[in-house]
Amino acid sequence: MAELDLNTIRAWRPETIIASADQLAQKATAFLAILDEVKDRTNRAAGSSYGSGEEARYAHVDTTVSYGYAQHELMVQHHQLATECGYALKAKRDAVLEEVQAAQRAGLIVRTEGVVEGDYPRQAELMDKYAESVGRAKHDLEQADADFARRIRDLNAKIKEGVGGFREAKNFETFGNVKDEPVDPDKAAKDRAQHIADGDEPLPTDPKALNDLFKHIHADKDPELLKALQHRYPDIGNKPGFPFEDRDVCNRQHMGDMKTQAQAELDALRKQHPDWDTGHPPGTPTDPHLPPGLRDEANKTGQMNNPEWGPWSQRVQQLQHQLEGYNNLQGVLDRSNKDGLPRFLGFIDDKGHAAVSIGNPDTAKKVDTFVPGTGQDMVAIGASDDKSTGLHDAARQADKSLGKNDVSVTTWMGYDRPMTVNPYDKDHTEWAGDPQFALNGAQALDDWQNALRFSHDDAEGRAYQTVIGHSYGSSEVGAAATHGHRLDADALVFVGSPGVFADNAHGLYINPGGRVFDELADNDIIHVANAGDSMGIHPLGVDPSTFDDVTQVKTDPGPAGDDFHTGYTTKAHSSYFFPDSSGLQNLGKIIAGVEPEHK
To answer: What distance in Å separates the CA atoms of residue 208 and residue 202, rounded to the nearest whole number?
Structure first.
């Protein structure tokens, strides 16, 4: 049994096994279609011709087809085993990395070979604990790897034994009336998609396998098939690897359906209590001049007398916010009619998550993901789309050979971002100093970047992928490049960052040769959030502008002032995206793959 070091484990991608399994499933489906066609034609031909010679020939074809069906069964078994293997190894790999990260968070050092070191004897107990847990998780992974390798070798041997029958089935055209008709990949894909829509076959879970299948299906040519698929899988447009043109069609429909459902629920709630509103419990005074203390006491009394009002009011406000988000998102999509930039709805759900791409990420040469920060939910997507539009224009200005379809910038709101910078905000408990929002959303961003790579059409070359995180969005980007994640990015850019869960740029796992950039304006109020670094207080990690191995990028100082008596301003926190600013110009250069001006 081979022993795996941690570098190998970190770089390991069991997802490729799942992708290979899904590719095999596609081939098995195409092969089965051939066999069924041969059998059908043979049966029809046998009913119209007679004689011992003809009977012998049809019997031989029948035998060959039987071999083929047996081979198909082995292919199905191989797909099932490879799928089981991929998911099992992914879970065990993640378990190893989680134990390693837990040891590191406890202040220990974990060597490449898995040896745990620390300050002895002070950390002796911790060293023993994590030496055991890391070693056990590592052993479980190595054992599973060996077991699956043996099972796959055994199955491969069976498949090789049946290769003669497979070869004969492929050469069935030598038998009489059966013609040599090569498999049409579009037809095979549509047949398989129809099986999925009918519930006879599961939807592929691997982004590459999903893309390999659905790149043959187009919304304008196959609307009924796409409609049937969405009926079975309403959120199919969110699936990683699904082509963006189809994503856009499905997600716009999905948004319309969710909007209709939310409006119907809101109407029903209002109908239940037509005299209620969300501002105060029924029966309480509404005099605006009432002292706050008396008003609060009256509201408490009103809620005690009407216990249903609290949940009713909360749900009404949630639905109102949700509908406002859908409307604002639709307004962003409609901007394409004015500015001529195509927009694709790459993600949408009923939890406030969305992703809008300016330019098609599947065909663009330069593909950027912009991650906004605190308070930037779907209701605020218009302001974020303004920033993405500026980034798209800046990239084309940086390299004037780039056309509008050569650049794609996605406003990615696929995580639960905090909604306030004030930890004492009574209206919002999600504040920007809490690392859990970034950590919980890291996998979603990791998956998004992987899916961009899998669905990209590389006919004209590999896409250059960048990720820009602004404010708390930079913490989300950092979380997706640490904690066992490896972000598919050729460049990361942190803009006005409060921390990225790393001590240096080399602690961020991105593509080999990838670079890390940082922009920090002199007057940005984010300096206040980073003041704790000098005292060892940095729940989101240290300020990345202090990294020795980060590339500091030139940006304007931003508007000066003294907001909240800090000596800094909130306007400077957004100044990186001001038109014609050095910050925006340099961000455009990074997206375009052009060296930016250094600070």
So the answer is: 15
- Reading the block at residue 458, the tokens are 């590389």
Please give the distance of CA 54 from its chain centroid, rounded to a whole number.
57
**Count of structural domains, the chain:** 3
CA distances (Å), 285 to each of 137, 273, 294, 301, 513, in order?
Answer: 62, 18, 10, 11, 65
Angle 126-132-135 from CA coordinates, rounded to 5°: 130
Q: For the whole model, what pTM was predicted?
A: 0.71
Report how far residue 59's alpha carbon sits from residue 45's, in angstroms, rounded to the nearest whole number: 12
Q: What is the CATH number of the domain that holds 150?
A: 1.20.1270
Residue 491 lies in domain: 351-592
Element (H, E) at 491: strand 491-495
**Alpha carbon distance 444, 10 (integer Å):** 18
Q: How far is CA 363 from the centre of its chain?
A: 18
Residue 172 lies in a domain: yes
Task: Say if 1 falls within a structural domain.
Answer: no
Position 97 confidence tier, pLDDT thresholds 50, 70, 90 = confident
Is residue 174 within 8 A of residue 57, CB to CB? The reply is no
DSSP E strands in 181-249: the ranges are none
Give CB contacts under 8 A, 24+ apart, made by 507-511: 507/482, 508/478, 508/481, 508/482, 509/10, 509/481, 509/482, 509/485, 510/481, 510/486, 511/465
**Residue 211 · residue 241 · CB < 8 Å:** yes
Instruction: Kindly list the distances between the CA atom of residue 93 and the CA atoms of 140, 149, 297, 438, in Å, as whole numbers in the listed order.
Output: 9, 16, 55, 22
> What confidence category does residue 429 fall into, taking pLDDT thresholds of 50, 70 and 90?
low
Q: Which residues contact 29 (CB under 8 A, 6 or more apart)?
A: 188, 191, 192, 195, 201
In the predicted structure, residue 505 carries a pLDDT above the cut 60 = yes
For the segment 419-425, the average pLDDT, to the nearest whole number, is 68
* Opening angle at CA 387, ends 409 and 399, nearest 5: 55
Residue 173 contacts by C-beta under 8 Å, 6 or more apart in sequence?
179, 180
Q: Are residues 539 and 580 in the same domain?
A: yes
Which residues are within 8 A (CB) of 137 and not within 5 positions of it... i.e. 6 or more apart?
92, 95, 96, 98, 99
Alpha-carbon distance of 497 to 381, in angstroms, equals 20
Of 276, 263, 268, the residue nearest 309 (C-alpha): 276
Cα-based angle 238, 101, 107 (whole degrees, multiple of 5): 150
Return the SS3 of 524.
Answer: strand
**Mean pLDDT to the nearest integer, 345-362:** 96
pLDDT confidence of 459, banded at 50, 70, 90?
Answer: confident
